[in-house]
Amino acid sequence: MSSPTNAPPPLTWTSQFSVASSSRGAQLSGDKIVLPHSTLEQLLSAAPVTSPEYSSSRSFEPFNPFVRDTERFGSGNQIQQPQLPHPLTFRLVNPDNGRVVYAGIREFSAEEGEIVLSQFLRGSLGVEDENEEKRDSGKAGHDQSNDIMTSGVNDFGISKAAQMITVHAKQLPKGKYARLRPLEAGYDPEDWKSLLEQHLRRNFTTLTNREVLVVPGGHGIGGNNEEFRFLVDGLKPEGDGICVVDTDLEVDIEALNEEQARETLKKIAAKAHRPRGTVEGSSSGGSLDLFRPAEGQVVGGEYVDYELASWDRSQGLEVELTKVNEEQELDIFLSPFGSRQRVKPRLDEHVFAEVSSESPKRIRLRSTNAELDHAETIWISVYAFPSNESAEALVVPRKFTLRVRPMDTDVVGSASEGNPETAPPNPSDVQCKNCLQWVPQGRLFLHENFCLRNNILCPKCLRVFQKRSEAWESHWHCQYDGAFGSTPLSRTKHDYYTHTEQTCPSCSRSFSSMFRLAAHKTTVPQEGDPDVPNAEALLSGLTPHELADGARTTECHLCDKIVRMRDMATHLKHHDLERFSRPSPRLCRNVNCGRTLDGASKSGDTRAGTRRGQGPGNDIGLCSVCFGPLYVSMYDPDGRALRRRVERRYLTQLLTGCGKGWCLNEYCRKGRENAGIGNAAVATRDALPMIRPFLDALNTTEGHVTPLHFCVDEANQKRRNLASMMAAEKGMAGKGGYDIEWCVAALEAEGGDLDNAWQWLKNWAPERAETH
């Protein structure tokens, strides 16, 4: 690794641009900017020139020709090329007011001489919108006779619209910590924690100290968009800004003052006073069973989620919500849980819904419905639309009964129940012209007199109301569709669901209704252009918007790379593929040696030593350590001199021994004594016949499979014996275990640690086929 003194110099670049109109940056979010294409060429010209990192071998082995060649190569003849830092970050300065903010680059596609800023950056830098400038200049032109101000030109004759921003290339340190302070009391971490993480991940490359971070929330009562505002008040490493990409950022939320902290705790405690599953809170939900209804309750603005795990897939399903007061406005949302839909149904993301104001509410699904294909389970959510009443009324739970039952396919599309125009129950009954009810012939006169005085029939929906009732006064019909209701809350809900423009938070695309937004989020991949499906989304099998939700990063436990959580399964499959395609380790020919020829690393590389120029350096199958005592620099093309050296080493071991108390080499006098082999002393006339087969096979094609027996150090011998025991054991689930060469490589990579060696085998080594 390069030392800090050899680190490349920082990127130095500065330029000034005029701010493009705010409409050009409407699609930008967070701290993103767009610069001209020529800026990229300037940055590359200003970038420091670096070379590929050269790592010299740790130890020099004179008998290893690969090491000598690597050392001679040194650092010469290396390719020089400019290298831009990643990610690119910039320091933006407004010279008019001195405001400073840090930003990340979105792309290089702006007009020459212009910079496109997001709305967040425009506010942070104090850049005025064009509409405000026109209004200000209009007022000035109306009050003054000078026409120069009317045209939007200041005292120096420079157009006010051409506001300049100075841009500096600034490489920020990776952030470790950030402290945020809410600007309002009552922020509950359950409400904004996931939103904050998602907002930072999608929209920000940097964080600037003392800036206000606005996190968009969900839809409030009546469709108002909720926002969470935080002041960035403290960063680590300390400074004006940090980079938040590819780093583990710890975030603390602290109140601005004691009064705000007390108010926040008070509001959170009030919410916690009615937790789920209690008398005052929403039900906990859970599993649904066919034919067994589920009784529950839900607080306004909350969901109760149920799961149907199994059902007869040859039949349809009917989901029914009953025992609901029409004034409470409870809705059903349903989504199959499978490869394409993996989120619980919500107002802005669901597949099926029943949101009418009538009761009971039903959703009927055919067995041939395409959305049910490959569905693992079905999620059903009951949602209470929040009312516009007082806060006390909002927390009153609304009771319901939810049941799911099989449904014959013929039932779907049958005539509606309770049609007033059906045949009379009795042949003598006649129909009242006012309320359309069937009454006996003799009671018709009295019934009509009472009915005409007190009841009124809605000609559109044929529902009967009392003339002076609140339900009749609040009864409404939508002029654009066939919806109707009898409460102000139902009208508010219908207008919000159906006739209020909604915006997708991922792609900023607008839709005419909540249902069109839900269809967009459950059918269209949410990265890139929504009109052009993202190939990654189509191939991943994830649900729409799941790509963005799974963009959080984590560290792979195998290779230490930063991987997106949604890609972790695919990333681990690549490791499995490498595990089965990785070349097997080559063992040292010395049966007492616990090393491989090429060296093994903790990351599973079975050729790690050879890649560093520390390969064996010989052609007789010994590792560099075992071959060291046999190495000489003389020319020996036939290997005769090498054979004589091997013969002398064998004779020395058999006649004299190594004298080590741990040696168990059967071809060593001391090893034979330690192992209890009879007649440890071997005469010369007996030693020569013992070693002749090994000498004869030394330079033959069978040489690499014919063992050699040289004494080694204690740790090396212990690793080899431990590897033999590991190879004799069965693998997991009764499989064949691991071959001896993989066990030797595991112990070599982990320095002889048995537990770590087993984990190394599990991560990097293929198990051998089971033998019977």
From TrEMBL:
Keyword field contains Iron: no
InterPro entries, per database record: AZUL (IPR032353), AZUL_sf (IPR042556), DUF7590 (IPR056012), Ufd1-like (IPR004854), Ufd1-like_Nn (IPR042299), UFD1_N1 (IPR055417), UFD1_N2 (IPR055418)
Transmembrane annotation, as ranges: none
Residue span(s) of domain DUF7590: 281-406
Gene Ontology process terms (BP): ERAD pathway; ubiquitin-dependent protein catabolic process
Keyword entries, A-Z: Ubl conjugation pathway
Highest taxon listed in the record's lineage: Eukaryota
Mitochondrion recorded as keyword: no
Any Pfam family hit: Znf_XAF1_N
Record family assignment: Belongs to the UFD1 family.
Protein name: Ubiquitin fusion degradation protein-like protein
Taxonomic lineage: Eukaryota, Fungi, Dikarya, Ascomycota, Pezizomycotina
